[in-house]
Amino acid sequence: MTGFIEGIEKFDSPGKGRGLRVTRPFKVGELLFSSPAYSYVLSVNERGNSCDFCFNRKEGLARCGKCKKAFYCNAKCQKGDWAMHKLECSAMNAFGENWCPSETTRLVARILAKKKMMKERCVSEKLLLIEELESHLEDEDNEKRERTEADIAGLHRFYPKHLEVPDRNDLLTLFSQVACNGFTIEDDELSHIGTAVYPDVALINHSCLPSVIVTYNCTTAEVRAVQDMKPGDEVLISYIDLLYPTDDRNIRLREYYYFTCDCLECKTKSKDEEKLKVRKQRDPFEPHVVNNMIRYARNTVREFRALKHIRTPSELLEMCEQSLEKMGAVFDDSNVYMLHMMYQAMGVCIYMQDADGAIRYGQKILKPYSKLYPPYSLNVSSMYLKMGRIYMMIERHSEGIRALKKAMAVMEVAHGKDHPFLRGLRKEIGQK
User: PROSITE patterns given for it (predicted)?
Assistant: First the structure.
């Protein structure tokens, strides 16, 4: 590991390669370790809302005097970011609105710049860990290869010649490593803020029954226990959204991480029946009717993702409503595919500033979410936050405070009681 972390050790995890395990007991909510990012980048959509260096969200951020597109808390943050920002500053000026490298390309550029600096300073330990990150280059399909080719073209087009870009094979490997090991930094409502690489955290293997959760304090990753752990227990996180049934989870794991999970939940499929719940009726649905509706639901989910940034909000909401009506003839409201489309509909309503519509969908989501997700799930806390803030906005304060307190109960475990998100939430509730 990049340094000595008390109570944690690397080991060879059977069937999984390298992993981490604990050497002492940890209680629910206890911090196992924190890890600064090796390299990170703020999402372009966050510029002006968050500091490019520390990711702190605040009003009155100072703008970079040269490019006018990067924002900072103060001169200290601007100075701290200059080694990375200078890769983009002049290019953003030169290309103007045509400057459009992907977030992955931007992160790779920063990793290359960081590696160059570390070589010059003769710092080898973290450099070695970046080189050791797992890559699945040989497993990538044509679509992913084409996406990587476009990202590489962006790297050559938008970045200076002195970046020291490696040869083609090494560059392909690096992009694959970032794809497999990159972490999405999110806010308290799980909105995307940026992307980062954490070599230590990347050692943690996946399980659909995770023992820890990763949250973010500015750009630092924090790993906390969500189960009581005893010496010898493996440190396990979930790489994917755990709402969905076993087959769906493993399709996603194979697509993005190239393995199939064999955890206890995947072996027993103990929650699948509940997640795929159908409506009660005198004569049960024939299996082929249920299977056909599952296929329809999966296709609808994929179609919605493809059209999300193309269709108008009204069109997207209509798509949600039509699919909910069709699925609702077979599925119970707590079925995960129903919940998925309700969640999308809620997001569209929030975007359209339709508070009543957002609350209507949110109220149907909350109870099943609390039941189907593992304890201390950020998906649950983010839903309570959304609902609480909407209630407060329309002056339904008692309902708002109840929802925000339920979010706080989850976040105190997942984020730690002293996290900035919790301090802000206490102010929202009116607590000191």
Answer: SET, ZF_MYND_1, ZF_MYND_2
Q: Which of 145, 196, 192 is nearest to 171 (CA)?
A: 145
pLDDT in tens, 7-43: 999 999 888 889 999 999 999 999 999 999 999 999 9
CA 83 to chain CA centroid, nearest Å: 26
Task: Give the whole-angstrom CA distance, residue 273 versus residue 270.
Answer: 7
Residue 402 CA to residue 406 CA, distance in Å, equals 6
pLDDT tens, position by position, 66-84: 999 999 999 999 999 999 9
Per-residue pLDDT reduced to its tens digit, 142-168: 888 899 999 999 999 999 777 888 888
Is the same domain home to 290 and 407?
yes
Which of 23, 378, 27, 3 shows the shortest CA–CA distance to 234?
Answer: 23
Alpha helices in 373-396 (DSSP H): 378-393
Same domain, 133 and 156: yes
pTM for the model: 0.92
Amino acid letter for position 136: H
Q: What range defines the domain where residue 168 resides?
A: 39-184
- Whether 308 is in a domain gets the answer yes
Instruction: Say if 261 falls within a structural domain.
Output: no
- For residue 216, CA distances in Å to 119, 150, 255 come to 28, 30, 26
Are 24 and 103 in the same domain? no
Residue 128: pLDDT band (50, 70, 90) is: very low
Pairing mode, strands 71-72 and 62-63: antiparallel
